[in-house]
Amino acid sequence: GLRRVGIFRISGSVNKIKELKQKYNQGEKVDLINHGDVDSVASLLKLFLNELPVAVLPDSVCAGMLKAFQEHRIDTTECIKNLRQLISCLPKAHQNLLQFLSAFLLKVATHSAVNCMTLENLAIVFGPALFK
């Protein structure tokens, strides 16, 4: 699906998303390759992130990130140091999810010439789910 034009922007089938979500919630094995289309699987990922009880990047971390960006606009090395410190304070599950999602979205963006999903477009799609 990395070459799917508009991946994450085109909604999947509501029924398929509901079916896949139900299977996951019941602990069933889910075969996304054979039983899910690209748009429904992409929508399922966004739904998962949106329904997390706590944002991947909680308000306290977001405030610290904004402060780091404001205070270190010119000194990117110091800004990155501060951001790493903030992320290291997240619960391990949040860190792991953020690391996996970042790597995955970077991979999606490497195909932006075909799928039209640049880093900026992905930020628009995933930002609200990550920061709530």
Overview of this protein structure:
The protein is mainly α. Helix 1 crosses helix 3. The chain is globular, with a radius of gyration of 17 Å. The two termini are 26 Å apart.
Task: Say how many strands there are.
Answer: 0
Radius of gyration: 17 Å
The proportion of residues in beta strands is under 5%
Low-confidence stretches: none
Order of H and E elements: HHHHHHHH
Major sheet details? none
Anisotropy-based shape:
globular
Question: Helix share of residues?
Answer: 55-70%
Number of helices: 8
Chain-averaged pLDDT: 93
Give the CA-CA distance, first to last residue.
Answer: 26 Å
Supply the helix-strand structural class: mainly alpha
Pfam family, one: RhoGAP
GO molecular function, one term: GTPase activator activity
Domain Rho-GAP: 1-132
GO cellular component, one term: cytoplasm
Which helices and strands, and how do they pair?
Blueprint: H1 14-25, H2 32-35, H3 38-50, H4 59-71, H5 76-88, H6 92-109, H7 112-115, H8 119-131
Helix pairs in contact: 1-3, 4-5
Defining traits:
single chain; 132 residues; mainly alpha; 68% helix; 0% strand; Rho-GAP domain-containing protein; RhoGAP_dom; Rho-GAP
In a nutshell, what does this entry contain?
Pfam families: RhoGAP. The chain contains 8 helices and no strands. It is mainly α.
